[in-house]
Amino acid sequence: VTLSTSDGFYGIGGRYGKDLPSSGYGDWITSGLTGVFDGNGKTITLAVDTSALADNEVNPGFVNISKDQTNPIYLEITGGLFNNTRGATVKNLTIDGSVKLLVSSAFVGVFAGTAENSVFDGCINNADVTTGAVSNTTWTGGIAGYASEDSAVFKNCTNNGDIFAGAFAKSEGNSGAAGICSYIGATSTTFENCTNHGDLSAT
Hints:
The protein has no helices and 22 strands. The radius of gyration is 16 Å and the shape is globular. The strands form 4 sheets. Strands 1, 4, 8, 11, 12, 15, 16, 17, 20, 21 and 22 form an 11-stranded parallel sheet that branches. A 4-stranded antiparallel sheet has the order 3-2-6-5, with no helix packed on it. It has a 4-stranded parallel sheet with strand order 7-10-14-19, with no helix packed on it. By secondary structure, the protein is mainly β.
């Protein structure tokens, strides 16, 4: 199966805001995977590109996913597949394709942007990743961008994709790139039998 931005795929879950910047980003909703996603050895191909959609003057770094332009709904897309996971397990899954994300300032990952108390087992990333931020930095991982304070477990995970963080001439700081997870928020996060074979670069 192929999941494409051009077909209306913006990742699963995420950080939403209906309000325009002038009214203060008042309406946030956070959702994401909370159960078990077993890929059963299958492959998902991603064709995700928000570099043009998020480069807007109204809500920079966010994409208007609403077809009703008078009542826009903005989403900061931080993951290729899941924008975030909570108490979840993702296993036995390979991701191919390409991921290009322009965000406000965020942690970005191919499987999950933010992983909260989640397990990734047997996850393989073959997708090349390019990310940038309009207001600060982007920390990008082949599996997850951020393992939050609630910890995460990475087992038997491999990154084969090339990762470039700080692209699109937008980032205003020191971004980071990692094969598995770019930013660790909990000392209890563990890695077991994980490898990176992709080229990593960040500006």
